[in-house]
Amino acid sequence: MLDLEALPDWLRRQRWFGGKGTPIAAVRVVDEARLEALHVATIEVRYDGDRPAERYLLPLKPDDAPLEEALDEQACLAILAILRGRGVIQTRGGTLRGERFDGPDSPLSSLSERPTVRRLSVEQSNTSLVFGDAVILKLIRKLDQGKSPELEIGALLARRGFRSTPALLGALSLEGKVEATVAVAHRFVRVETDGWSYVVDAFMKDAVPPAALLGEIRELGARVGELHSALAAPDEAAFAPEPIRREDLERWTLGLLSELDRTVRVAGSVVPDLQSRKDALRARIEVEVPRWKQLIPEIGLKVE
What we know:
This protein is of the alpha+beta class.
C-alpha cells in the first residue's frame, strides 16, 4: 500500500512533478498494477484553490519500503519487455498494453535480450531511458486523458512512411478506468549538438553564412515541407487540413515583422549593418504574403 500521507512531500522533491508551488489538498490512487520488478501506480493530485487536479505515473519499488522510484536495470527492462512483446498487464481498473509500430528493420527486434540501460540526465517533465544505444523510451510522468499527440502524430507518420524524424517504434497505454499514454519508444539517434547551437556556432565563425550552411538550411526547409504534407491527411479526420483564413496570413505577417524588429534590436550590436537592411527585409516579407495566397491553392489548401 502506498503511504498517501508521505506522498505529498515526496512528490515535491521529484524533478518531474509540476505542482511544487501549489499546496496539495489530497492524493489518491486511481489505478495500479504490480509487476515482478516494480509497482506501477497512477495517482491523482488535487490542489487547494482553482488549479485543476493532475494525474501522475509512479513506477515504484514493489514492496512496502519507503517511497522510492523503481527505475533500476531490472525495472527498466520489465517496462521495455511489455512494449516489446505487445504485453497486456491487468491493472486494478483496466489494462496496461504494449503496442508496436515498427517494421522488419526495427532496433526493437535487433536488441539483445538484456540490452544496456541508461537514464538520460537531462530531464524535465518526463523520464527518458536508452536501451542499447538503439531505442529511447520516454516514460510520461504527468498523464493527460487519451492518446498523447506524440503517439498519434508518430503513428500517422509511421503509416505514411515519413522517415525524416526518429521512427516511432511502440508505446505503452493505460486502458479502462484510466485512458492515457504512459510511454513512447523511438529509434535513438545520437547527436553532437542541436540545430540552434549549430547555426549560431557557424555565424560566430563567419558573419557571412557559408554556402554549405545555406544548403543545409534549405534542405531542412524541404524536410519540414514534407512533414506538413505527410500530416495533411484528408482520410483521417483528426489530421484533415483546415482552411487558412486571411486573418491567419495577416497575423503571421505581423508576427514575422515583429520578430524582425526584435532580431534587429537584439543582434544589431553584433551585426552592425543589420539595421541598414531592415527596410529591405520588411519589404521582402510584405511582398511574400501575396505569393503565399497564390501558392496555397497550388498545394491543395484554400484561403477563406
